[in-house]
Write a structure and sequence with these properties.
Helices cover about 30% and strands about 30% of the residues. With about 190 residues, it is of the alpha+beta class. It has one domain (about 5-180): Alpha-D-Glucose-1,6-Bisphosphate, Chain A, domain 4, CATH 3.30.530.
Length: about 190
């Protein structure tokens, strides 16, 4: 059960950061370079597969989540799109967790938990705890490559989030990506 944890200090109130991560969960594609685009999955009656997932992980506050999940474009040929289904959402504690589907068949679990914790009135820390489980020889080899990539991507994710919350606009790196995709004005 390999895990990776990252922490990012952001100079902004925890409530402002949580608005981007929690209520803004579906909009990660607007500020994170690692996700070229994203769309929310509205609350609908769950499918049988969703019901099984929810029975294993549901917390009472999950109904308070703005969406049930999101579909993220990755920009990667091997996994062009990933569906991230919320399995926990706690507005009061500023935390959420999701599981990814649409991964290569050797990935058995891809789960991530985000938590926003205030350090002071105008500073907070965002913690990401990711778990990636795999099977088979290919899975064992690929898991370490994927974890290394996740570590690098997480650093950019923290930088992008910090810039977005502290400056009110996407990072220059994300603005260039949006410009190339024809979804944004010139970088500022």
């Amino acid at each position: 059960m390999p895990k990776i944890s990252k922490r990012f200090v952001i100079t902004a109130p925890a409530s402002a950061v949580w608005q981007v991560i929690g209520p803004g969960y579906a909009s990660i594609g607007e500020w994170a370079t690692a996700i070229p685009a994203s769309t929310g999955l509205p609350h609908e009656p769950p499918t049988p597969a969703d019901q099984a997932l929810l029975r294993r992980h549901t917390e009472p506050d999950l109904d308070a989540a703005p969406v049930t999940g999101r579909v993220c474009s990755t920009g990667l040929a091997i996994v062009p799109e990933v569906t991230e289904t919320l399995i926990a959402y706690n507005d009061a504690n500023r935390s959420l967790a999701y599981e990814a589907a649409g991964m290569p068949s050797f990935v058995t679990t891809a789960r991530n938990t985000w938590t926003v914790t205030p350090l002071s009135n105008d500073t907070c820390v965002v913690t990401l705890d990711a778990q990636l489980d795999s099977r088979g020889i290919i899975g064992t080899l690929a898991r370490w490559v994927m974890l290394a990539q996740l570590g690098r991507t997480s650093q950019h994710l923290g930088d992008d989030l910090r810039h977005f919350v502290e400056n009110g606009r996407p990072s220059p790196r994300k603005q260039r990506q949006l410009l190339r995709a024809g979804r944004h004005n010139r970088p500022t």
